[in-house]
Records
---
Amino acid sequence: MFSEEPYDVVVVGSGVAGLVCAADLIDAGLTVRLLEADGLPGGRMRTDRVAGFTVDRGFQVLNTSYPQVKRRLDLRALRLRPFAPAVLVSTAGGRRRFTDPTRDLRGSADLLTGRAASPRDLLAMGLLSARDLLEPASLVRSRRDGTTRAALARAGASPELVETFFRPFLSGVFLEDGLETSARVFHLVWRSFLRGTLCLPAEGIGAVPAQLAARLPPGVLHTETPVDGLVDGGVRLADGAVVGASAVVVATGMTAATRLLPGVRVPSGRTVTTVYHAAERSPLPEPALVVDPQLRFLNTCVLTEVHPGYARDGRALVSTSVLGELPPGEEARLGEALAEAYDTDTRSWQTVHRITVRDALPAMPPPHPLTRTTRLDAGVYVCGDHRATGSVQGAMASGARAAREVLADLGRA
């Protein structure tokens, strides 16, 4: 027996996939109930305030080139601040600067003088980038798949360039250090870097789902409402109440999706740990990512160089991510690696927050489908970044696809 009048659709999970799905269904005239187990929407895209610091749940950025982002978000309202169009590689001989010369010619000295890479590697990078930038996205998607490492070899990148730049940088992008990710996913992501700008909202990455949620009609989103399981014609809540619906869309993370949908196949997940340190002075006077070819960390940056308001007391906030979990006792070694990367004494840095995010990204080895149907069974659908390319763009596009397929199946397209 239903606890209330059945809805057209119940969406379970209010990450960006669920928020987009619910919004599109409502725009089409359907009645929707969006259920969220947590106290706030956003899923993994959440921001916390810790001891006066703004800290995201893991290091996250917003890429302004994503079509779904441009279509659905008021970017000006987010008060975005950009990262520098450069990646700094920490080496024994100092930091090498890999800069996009089309955006910062003056900062490209390391590239133009051959300090960052050989002329042959610069040519290979240039041709790779030009092809990914200029080809229609449909052609990029239709290329033969393989691993990212194989794609870089085909592009002519030397082993030295791969190990010095591509492997450490992409390890932070895909959360795996073997360059095993689908080449098609790599090319699409590389294309997005070339076409867009990496930014952070003034209030943290959680401002993105908060903006999407604010646009929903009152009464659609119900937080602190965990779903215990699916039943015929709806869902059963943890308190035993049943919410009826003609269709149910599961838009949760991978772990919750497998619990609610025992037969669904999801990829394995990648785990990342992010440590936030406070320093009296900024160790790097620019908003740039620093990576480590030794892979002692994935990437590090001074967040207050991007947004000074991330620290209310005027100190510098440094974010550093490592692959997987950070074992007890390893934080001291991480401090040593950061001292080398920033060429400074880190012993006085204060750890203000540390978070491990499991299933932060889906594994995407080849052959990887760039999009998949969300239909699982009659009236049951599943969406999320694990059904696409593991990005904000992929999550939003998957949510939009779920809405389209629900509308088609209900005869409302």
---
Amino acid sequence: MKFGPLGEAIEAAMPTSEADPIGVWAASLSLYSAAISRRVRTEDRRPIVVWTVLAGRSAIGRKGYALGTATALLGKSIGGFIHTRKRSGVSSGPSLVDMLAGLELDTMGADGGIDGRCMLLEEEWAAVLKTQKKCAKFSTLFRTAWDGKPISNRTKKDGLQSVAQPLLGFHAHITPGEWAKYVSASEALGGSYNRLLPVLVERSKMLPYNNKWQLPDTSALKTAYTWAQEEDRVMRFSVEAGERFDEIRALVEDRMAELPELLASYMERSAEQVQRVSAVLSATVMEEEISREAVEAAWNFVSFSMASVEKLVKDAATNNEGNKPMKTPEELVREVLKRYGGQAKSSDMLRPLWGKLNAAALKETVEGMDDVEMWTERTGSRGAPSIMFRLVEEVQAPEPKRPDAQVIDMQELLKSKNKPVDPPALGNFFSGLI
């Protein structure tokens, strides 16, 4: 997923942060995309805002820590935007329109023109979801805002309020249990949640109580932010990036075809999510042409989100059906290896095993399994060797041979009533039936 100065900054900050690096990446993409959304668009004139959700258990998920790390990293580049445009607690359609219209109204006549950018941060998303369900308009207006299309609302007091081009960023936190309770199937089928990129997160490490964040130099991000604000930027795929994007679209649709309708509904906009994320990443290196490398980094993030959604939805269904017997660690390892065709890297194994086995537990489990082998292998020119796992077929023990016996056929026996029969052979015949 790492790409450009944003990826380098997050990597440099992680040794002194307990957050999940994917959580920091997700929060950073939401914040930065919202900040540059005023003048940066895709080539089909769509917004580039990336909406993310961190799903993790209370305390050990370190969701707030991830957002805090992202906010600190981006403070010197987009800190002013975050401070002045951060909002929360929006729980109805009319309040959403009123908030965005108010931001536009406040900037009318300003030197830079109307600026309706907004960053909606919901760190207690479950509480807001409870209230949002009471408003029939919210889901439709929320979806339309992500699409960048006009939204409006009419009130008796103020008449018609409208926003021609919503510039809404969104980032939220929720626990897996709250997801199961408040993220409804009907809303998902209606398309409310396929605009979001949820990712499962957990604490990356435990640091001393007196640990202090060590923030890296982020001047490159500040320069890129200035570049994005100077003039209108239209983000276009290079030829190679466009070809890879078409391949990804086909992969997403093939995966959706394999899934139940409810689960597939969360992934309907995964291809556009790749386009948006890759556009944001390209903006961080001040390039309007999106490279294949940016598309690959975006796809790695979006595919991780797709895997997170599968786990969240399936776990929610399991909870609703009642408690089921837990699988053993060995069964989980075999199941994941079969999913990857019998062989996988440790990093690929740990994603679907999130919350069940960590790296140390995975290694310990495999060491006690006769049907899984483990080794290290260098898969690239840089970095540490990867730990590899392979499922091997169990060796079947040969069946014990029966002692040689004189075999007799029943039909032949019946035909030879008057012929003497060898008693040992007859005894062997009936003992074989028993």
---
Amino acid sequence: MRFHKSAALGILATAVLGSGLAMAPTATAAEAGTAPACIKRDVVKHQKYVTVTNNCGRTMHLKVVINNGPDKGCYTYQPSQYSRQSWSIGSYGKVVTC
């Protein structure tokens, strides 16, 4: 009977440690750097949208962070490219590199 308890504890420990490794956190918006000043942000808060424009002269990977709501995905912006992103829950937070 002792073998079964030890084996069960070993399996449990492996499952717990294994799941912790599989669920390793990725970089969050808080850890990502705020987008540089060459990224133009036109925010219309009362209509809940932002237009993000890449004026950096190089390809940028950017994400819109929404306070108290779901963040937008990470998108690739070519030089001079822009996009309009809207949200329904929360408020505009910032644009970060990703």
---
Amino acid sequence: MTDMLPRESPVQLIDETGAAHADEQYRMPASDTLREAYRMLVEGRRLNEQCTALVKQGRLAVYPSSHGQEACQVAASMVLGDGDWLFPTYRDTVAVVGRGVRPSDAMVMLRGDWHAGYDPAVYGVAPQATPLATQLLHAIGFAQAAKMRGEDTVVLALCGDGATSEGDFHEAMNFAAVFHVPVVFLVQNNGFAISVPLARQTAAPSLAHKAIGYGMPGQRVDGNDVAAVLSVLTDAIDRARAGGGPSLVEAHTYRMQPHTNADDDTRYREREEVQQWLERDPLIRMKAHLRTSGALDDAVEQTIREGAERMASELRDAMNADPEIDPEDMFRWVTAQRSPQLEEQWELLRSEIEREQMATSEGGAR
């Protein structure tokens, strides 16, 4: 059973200075992979910045930023194959975009629309879940169904440390282990469940230690080291695909910005604590590593930055365009065939809209 226990310290392949460290179990990803990860890190950071600005401009209703957690997001999107699925949380927009979803489509739900903005089946990405831990149950159900159909599918289920305090987390972990489903749980431990610190959520040595209680292996990884997260997740994904069952990976990271735009994080954490994590920024360490190894030069860096700015510009243009709203959409997509009750509700709303339009027209004529 000791092989199920996580390490005493998180797996790290690249430290805060960008220096590489060999590991007996986990291999350093290839330079091309790390350069692509850096490109996605830069675009992810720019996406977080742009979306935060769009909230302030009133173009988004809310945006839970993953600023500082981009290494987890990028690695999660990179390790999955074409037939695999990602089950994200509300904070995992960078991972959603990393799977190929257009940023403007990923923002539809956060703008306040009624749907996710993209077709989950096209991208292998479930709609982002706002309730804590509910997506974990969806994930293990999907993985179990894929297993029963004999499909070569692995599911990666994302959650935060706060979700581990929910009953749904326990149920998902237990079901996954008992039925040996091909799922990997990635817990992004950013230190806070909104304002509640980890120490007030669990007395376990780490969240990864919870895995052995369910009969699955757990591992800890430096969540700001994209190389390490890539390597650890790849190992867990390969294990699940080979029939080895579920795993739990705890990524130690930090939420650099407030929980959402409605949160005042100065009420529950000191600025000095946030400042300390700035030195562990995943973008800074990866850039330093690539520069030292010769895998990144000024020209490549410029190309990457320009690509991120194009993405941000296209997102701004899309969000500044007012959407065309069809009230009937509230009833059109509830079921494949509209029920008499829904038809009655739509007719009631339609008649009210027509009366309002008529009254407005008559008022204008006078």
